[in-house]
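Annual report, structural modelling task.

Input specification for the nickel (II) ion complex:
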Amino acid sequence: MAKLDILEFPDPRLRLTAQAVETFDSDLKQLADDMLETMYAAPGIGLAATQVNVQKRLLVLDISETHDAPLVLVNPELLETRGTEVCQEGCLSFPGVFADVQRKDWIRVKAQDVTGKTFEMETDGLLAVCIQHEMDHLVGKVFVDYLSPLKRTLLLRKLEKQRRKAG
Ligand code: NI
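The model returned the following structure:
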């Protein structure tokens, strides 16, 4: 396994749209494994292929505290949603900053696993928020896009400050 470099905002490659995965081979499995390793090391709870400069509809998640519930979604599709909730979100492409974003509270998702097998899942709360956040990455969207211009400016200023601090 290998740790991958995570693109950070405002890298223009974060705006690229991912393509559907059509080949389910050992390279795809390796990519999913590497993305999980990268996400755990960051540490984070979700990572989209777009964030590691791979334009494929693939994302990995694990909201467990023990890092033993990895979830890989290939070609994810939202089938149904219900309600809304506001959650504080962060993103590995925006290290050190957080903002409230409104998302759907309950979702039903269809996806494939790394072998190409199709499955459906229903989820709510943090995992639902996380899936929606990562799915946005696959179409070049990031969480600060939901903020008002003023809030976005303040957040990006804070991001710059964090970066200078980190050297
Ligand atoms: Ni993100």
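The radius of gyration is 15 Å.
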